[in-house]
Amino acid sequence: MKMKKVLAFGLSAAMVFSLAACSGGGNGEPQAAASQPAGTQSSQAQAPAQGDTAGAAQEITLWTYPIGNWGKEDAVKALTDAFKADTGISVQVEYLAYADGDDKVNSAITANNAPDLIMEGPERLVANWGASGYMVDLSDMLTDQDRAEIQESVLTACTAPDGAVYEYPLVMTAHCMAVNVDAFKAAGADQYLDLETHTWTTEDFINAVEALYAHYGETVGAVYCAGQGGDQGTRALVNNLYGGTFTNAEHTQYTWDDPLNIKALEQLKSMEGIAFDASLAGGDEITKFYQGVLKMAFCWNIAQQLDPNTAGTGAEKTITGEQIAFMGFPSESGEPALQGGIWGFGIFDNGDPARIEAAKTFINYMANSEHTVDAVKTANYFPVRSAAGGVDLSTIWADNEIMDEYQVLMPYLGDYYQVTSGWAQARTSWWNMLQKVGEGADIASTVASYAAEANAAAK
Fold first, then answer.
1. What CATH number does the domain containing 386 carry?
2. Residue 138 near residue 50 (C-beta atoms within 8 A)
3. Is residue 5, in this structure, part of any structural domain at all?
């Protein structure tokens, strides 16, 4: 499916902004944003948004999380060198890890030494640092044409309730799951896969697990719950099986005590071949899937499809060369609601209009010009807009068969609820809840208890 068709479908209208990722080329959704530093900071007057560099600072700083190859120095240097050659502005880059990146940013904010630019997603830039008053409102950078070209739901995710835009989006993706096609064929379970649409029903999933377990006699899929790493996969699995939700549409309440989610957890717990495994997080599950131990993985996205386990041993293959197919999560209708990822740039308000202007010049160069193709391809994800700087972005992956095929999932992107208040606690409550379910605790009361814990943090 070409990107033009994908863009016509658009992201789900309900999506209002998840997969290290399986986000940024890693093994799971980014770690929950740490609590912001004490105190807030009022925004200073905005500098002009567009690319006139007169009066702009000649050196700025960028801190980036590992979003595809934006986490690799050689790839980013090629972009910043080109930017400097065209604008005269040099960019000093620091590469963050999800394990401690939030702590570094929060420490820098506390020390009044935050970077000029930060690259990550709305749960950090909008719901955390933006909501706390540390970010520059970028709404003056968006013309009517920009707003027409950028997916409406993506832009909504980057916008605070008061209308301030704290993230200028660049790329997006959908998190999914994966199956070992050769293992499915050996067990006669491939009959339950639609490898054209890459979707399947809940009934297909249950039948496939039964066939796999009958053939292999061991665990074929793991509900991993050692921590929050990759938890976008377990959330999507549970929510999709019977149509449950994780939050309400307004993102003011956690709703995973929905009876439909309880039904899904009861179904998973009852299945031979599915194990609730408190020794595994998302990255560990990927490794076991890559090694052939597990026959399906719930922590997956395009980065893993291109380079399983980040092992460099071949796209779409396990360590032994077995074929990997990406799949949407099973649902009763066969049409999943997938967790999405959005990444882009924000500017910390350091009180220096010249540096803010230079940072805006950088954003326009990377996300709204003829150079956007290079910036998007460096991320190894999909553009959030149909065109930039007069360049059509709808077919930029036409020369990459895997990327082009993966776009079949993009119309299934669901609600971006990661901006709900209390998100860090909610993620902790979720994996702790899964552990208790795995230990045999009463599912309904356990779910209710941990959902209440998350909602207490959301108030």
1. 3.40.190.10
2. no
3. no
